[in-house]
Amino acid sequence: MTKQIDVLTTVEVVDPGARRVKRSTPTPPLTRPDRVARGLGTRAEVPLESQSVLAPTELRSDPVELLERQAATRVPELVPIRYGRMLVSPFTFYRGAALVMAADLAGTPTTGLRAQLCGDAHLSNFGIFASAERRLVFDVNDFDETLPGPFEWDVKRLAASLEVAGRDNGFKRKERKSVVLAATRSYREAMRNFADQSNLDVWYAHLDVDHELARIKPLLRPDRAKRTERLIAKARTRDNLQAFDKLTTTVDGQAKIVSDPPLIVPVTELVPEVEANELFNRLRGLISSYRRTLSSDRKHLLEQFRLVDMARKVVGVGSVGTRAWILLMEGVDHNDPMILQAKEAQSSVLEEYAGRSLYTNQGQRVVAGQRLMQASSDIFLGWQRTKGVDAVDRDYYLRQLRDWKMSLPPEQMIPEGMAVYGALCGWTLARAHARSGDRVSIASYLGETDTFDRAIAGFATAYADLNERDHAALQAAADAGRIKVESGV
After folding, report:
1. CB burial of residue 57 (10 Å; 0-12, 13-18, 19+)
2. pLDDT value at position 237?
3. Can you tell me the mean pLDDT for 261-289?
4. Is residue 27 helix, strand or coil?
5. DSSP secondary structure string, 353-394?
6. How far apart are CA 168 and CA 90, in angstroms?
């Protein structure tokens, strides 16, 4: 009797031009030979070598126009900060230009082997944070753009980010290629390993930071190993108490969020015409609504905290201009604080090119994608839809502001370190895709040789060239007064 293998977790009928993506009738499970054949058949239709292709034409969308279109739904006074952060370097531009790359990826050879995508899988969107068991884990940590799509789009986003970051760091051509090949090889080999594992083994797989440090420490120079240990130790201090000390002050015995406009603005300063008690009663109602998206045990824990203050906070590069809030919560007393972050979730940049989300609430889309891709998600991860201070309905997802969370700064990496880091990112991305997609078909498509790795490295080089031109185009738009830029914020 032929052994049956798991089916895809999500079966979709996808029409990029349709108004919604609908679930189809569940299909019978495919056998392992069927899935291997599917991967090999895809390779015949979309050769591995074709993954290097990037052929933008004169019909390519204007990158500045795409960013302006995206800015239309953001807080107007914060958009110049976003542009200013993007113009710092080609890498910071790349971080903010997920929409631009999504449009470019849609024109590349596509396998059709779908998985849950991060949608913005650049190297700074991987990092360290605490699991519910209080262990440091390494994982993907940004899901604003998550959506099902062709697996290789995430791989290309990661690979190109390594090439771009390597250029910013002054790495030589061969060094950059070695970094990219380390990441793509790690992805391919991990996916082939996951293809042979059981469903539960794949689901439980994770990268424990302490274990990985012990494994890679002999590969690093002593000074780099010590620096890495210090960074990991620092990550353990980045918790709610550290955030509380940094972001709050005490007024008349009550903790308050410190105002630091335009980066941090308490809600009472944004809507001074609303009476404070009325405003906070409304906000507490929103917290109560969000609780319903949590499991019963975590709902019980959250109910032991009360909201005492709230402020708008500017975060990241690509996210600047979307509405992000920090919520100061207090438990048994002022020595028991917690800070939640509520971040606006707009439509994924992939939606126009990979199909609409199954979820009508964009916050739920983010949460569902994060839970599917991450080995361990924040215990307070949930979503809600609410009217903002401007009376417009918006979707949000919520989580703790910091919980031992840290991303390693790319600008401080040497080629050897970035290669190790890239390999960790590649393994992690493969694990996330293996949980959500047909890992056997993807592994069959990738094959045992380095053909895919080298093709992606070629794409990364070509895209880094294009990214530099786009960065220059944004600078030209700023110089011409087409866009307003606020730098150094």
Report:
1. exposed
2. 62
3. 82
4. coil
5. HH---S-SSHHHHHHHHHHHH-SS--TT-EEEEEE-TTS-EE
6. 7
Residue 203, token pair as written in the block: 């689901």
pLDDT digits 0-9 by tens, 409-444? 888 889 998 999 999 999 999 999 999 999 999 999
Whole-structure pTM value: 0.89
Please calculate the CA angle 9-15-346 and round it to the nearest 5 degrees: 75
**Average model confidence (pLDDT) across the chain:** 88
Question: How many Cβ atoms from other residues are within 10 Å of residue 483's Cβ?
Answer: 21
- Model pLDDT for residues 211-250, shown as the tens digit of each residue: 666 666 565 667 766 776 676 666 566 566 677 788 899 8
Tokens of 467: 């990214």
Alpha-carbon distance values, 161 to 111, 124, 272 (Å): 21, 9, 42
In angstroms, the CA 444 to CA 262 distance is: 50
Closest CA to 82 of 98, 71, 66, 69: 71
- Reference 78, options 312, 401, 328, 326; nearest CA is 312
